[in-house]
Design goal:
The protein is an alpha+beta fold. The chain has a single domain, classed as Protein Transport Mog1p, Chain A. It is 46% helix and 22% strand. It has a 5-stranded antiparallel β-sheet with strand order 1-2-3-5-4, sandwiched between helices.
């Protein structure tokens, strides 16, 4: 009986600490505000009425003219599938790595580099060749 009371007292004493350890939910508005505060030009922010990729919410915007999509999923399976689908095709990666497109006389690749990052049930997709900007936005996304 004394052990049970001791355990209850310890749990009650540690409850405030446990509450602070719980991660806070991702706040897209705070994320957008933080990206804008970092000195980037944030334009065309749109909360889509009909989200793509099976997500429950999609926010599209541009950072310094490069397209960014922020997706919120309610199903981890859908999120995992989309994370996989957004990764570059292995064959295309090989073509880029070996510079085959240029060697064979084909037109240069018009597509920008795609960066995909996950934070909880949110997925960030950045289409940009601007590496420093991409790194800063990803860092801010992970910090939220």
């Amino acid at each position: 009986m004394k052990k049970a009371i001791l355990i209850v007292v310890i749990v009650i004493a540690l409850l405030p600490l446990i509450v602070h350890l719980k991660p806070k939910p991702f706040d897209p508005e705070a994320f957008l505000k933080a990206v804008g505060a970092d000195g980037f030009q944030l334009t065309h922010v749109t909360d889509r009425d009909h989200p793509d990729l099976g997500s429950i919410r999609q926010i599209t915007f541009q950072v310094n003219g490069d397209f960014v999509n922020l997706y919120h999923f309610d199903d981890p399976g859908k999120l995992n599938v989309q994370m996989t689908m957004q990764q570059p095709d292995p064959e295309e990666s090989f073509v880029k790595k070996m510079h085959l497109r240029k060697a064979l006389g084909a037109a240069p690749d018009p597509n920008k580099k795609v960066t995909v990052v996950r934070n909880g049930m949110w997925m960030l997709v950045i289409m940009s060749d601007n590496e420093p900007m991409t790194n800063d936005v990803v860092k801010e996304f992970k910090k939220q």
